[in-house]
């Protein structure tokens, strides 16, 4: 048979010899093993069926907790309600150029920054009352989660400090949160912030829960900072125990409402002091510390005395008692090193420092020499004073003379007679 069969680049006949087989290129005879191709009915699938983009997105949304989904829905609902009312104003078209879309995803980052700032300042509850500061943060967080999760806009970072894209929004949110909180700690002090309890051994405890103040202003940067919480233990042996004084005062005023009340001129039938329902005004409170200084006979000359002076005294007293900075901060509410400015040295400490810096005391030998020199100078002055007297004779005695006998002339004359 003369038919040729081609295998690779080598042609062979149907009848070949052993020598012909040895000449075959062996690389062409290598078989590469691939994944076995099996029939769908022959074996179960190893992998799942292909998923579409919508399937992936649906699975991402299902992984979000139910409470978070509800918060997102609530935030979007408030946004939609605000846009419907805001678009009724002519200023909306004038400021933004177009009506605000009910879907924030239709806004660019620049417009989102602009309208979110207005939204966070203008949104109100259904009863027109303002949202609390934390609720404003939750509203903005819900809209951000919607844009990131549902709309795949991962570049939306409303709360990232380094992001300049939404800096205007963050400033407006911070100002609104501070506006909703009054930082006057004394004016807003409420009786409900104080509570009396008893520990396991029978001692009374005074508990104070602070609110927003100068050190915790309630802005965007302070939303995760806890308020001040203080517990003061009673001292039964002290007749001026703070817990006893507070307990007595709290029993004479309403349990809720302003803490500082005006005392009434007439006492109750049992002789106790009565207080008015009218709270003390802010102007009177601002002068109260000076009045206390005056009543105690403490001079206020060249001293800036304010209500803050009480906190300064508290910090200084604790520092001088040897307490650590962290312990002092737990009472004062400071979160920075500014509390160090309240450290004041005690009078006894200043005396000890002055003594430590004095020159060393002279030794006993030096003291004796100084005393002898002082006596010699004293005798010299005394001798010079007597030298001018007619009854005094000065005799210079050589150093070789060890003994001198002095006879009175009047005595010698008497002996001769």
Automatic annotation (TrEMBL):
Name this protein carries in UniProt: QRICH1-like domain-containing protein
QRICH1-like domain boundaries: 72-178
SUPFAM superfamilies: DNA breaking-rejoining enzymes
Lineage of source species: Eukaryota, Metazoa, Spiralia, Lophotrochozoa, Mollusca
InterPro entries per UniProt: DNA_brk_join_enz, Integrase-like_cat_sf, MAVS, QRICH1_dom
Gene Ontology biological process terms, A to Z: DNA integration; DNA recombination
Tagged with keyword Oxidoreductase: no
Keyword DNA damage: no
Residue segments, region Disordered: 357-390
Species this protein is from: Mytilus galloprovincialis
GO MF: DNA binding
Keyword entries, A-Z: DNA recombination
